[in-house]
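Hi! If you just cloned this repository, the fastest way to understand the data is to look at a raw example. We've pasted two of them here, unedited. The first protein comes first, obviously.
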Amino acid sequence: MAFSVPSKKSGKTYYLHLREQPRKNGGITKLYYFAGDVRPEVVDSLPEGYIVIENERTGLPFLKKAT
């Protein structure tokens, strides 16, 4: 089951995705993003240590490190 968040402003559902970007030094950077549809990169749960915040103006969700 994909991790999803409904927008409080628009009511649209957004799904969390993960793209792993290779770096020049051989490491990998994990890029999390929300999309309005389910793609192959969809993840099942929220990454540990993060919370979902919604942009008040646009209604789009994004991740923020938990304090």
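Ok, and the second one:
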Amino acid sequence: MAEKRDYYEILEVGRDANGDTIKKSYRKLAVKFHPDKNLGDPTAEDKFKELGEAYEALSDPDKRAAYDRYGHAAFNGGGGGRPSGGGFHDPMDLFSQVFGGGFGGGFEEFFGGAGGGSRRNSGKQKGSDLRYDLEISLEEAARGIEKELEIERYVACEPCGAKGSKGGGGIKACSTCGGRGVVARQAGIFIQQTTCPECRGAGETISDPCSTCKGDGRVQRECRIKLRIPAGVDTGTRLRSSSNGDGGVRGGAAGDLYVFLHVRDHDVFERDDSDLFCSVPLPFSIAALGGELKVPSLDGQSSIKIPVGTQGGTVFRLREKGMPSLSNGRRGNLNVTVQVEVPTKLSSDQEDKLRAFSESIGEHNSPMQEGFFKKAKRFFDL
């Protein structure tokens, strides 16, 4: 019996490698030696199993500690007082766990859409993930809301119970691909693998296909799906609705629905992360005399105390009147910039009073003007 190789050597990592390094190396090598990508190499399957065993041992802290202390003997039944690490899982299942999940169909990307690893055992093709773009208002993004989506998707065929067979007994393993769902052909030094044209990747053929679904085990339907949108989302936020994508072929697992959010531009507010910004006109009289100014906020109307002599462009911060954070729920601030509003139409009496007011304050009651002319004096002396 051949002596087992060192697990660290198999995974091509050092003994001080951390978990992320070990996983990264396993992912690279598992794709390289996957049997469905090496149909012409009789040693690939053994290498693939060897990789799975090594990764399972070194990715588990307890098993790794036992292996570092006792070597392969740690998993040989616990003789001589040494701990037993137990058996190892099916390398295909382990591969699925590491590569499974995510938008676009798990690890199928490595097999050109054929999904050889997933169909190799079950013959059930998983349904596709779906994308839905949803536009919401800023107020809805601030408070959170439940939306009902209308989406066309594949669902299980009821007449045949998703089997694809009219009577249920006409299902046989595909003779073209041998139930694998993929076929391969030699092209020089390369092996090209494609979805089986006979069974379309299902690994099965049906002699009495259901008249409703034509043997697919699923049909397209307009579906209504309720989606809860949390407070604090922003444009680009992606929400996942598990198993609400397309149903799988002949009872295969359903894919997921991914909803991409777009928050509409607001008429009043501009947003920067959790902070909101707006500009509000400030009457000339309140700017000069001080007072109270009503301003809009997501909670309704708020008030700002305006000090005497407030200048245009002054920013007032209303704490926790902005958007909630999606991560912790804390609200940002509302930043209000005031723009002093100058009257455009005055009566003769108002003009006379304004001139009298201007003459009464003179030049020494305008600090901004006085400061500007001090800086620009050299230009006026030319």
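That's it. A detail worth noticing about the second one: The longest strand covers residues 145-156.
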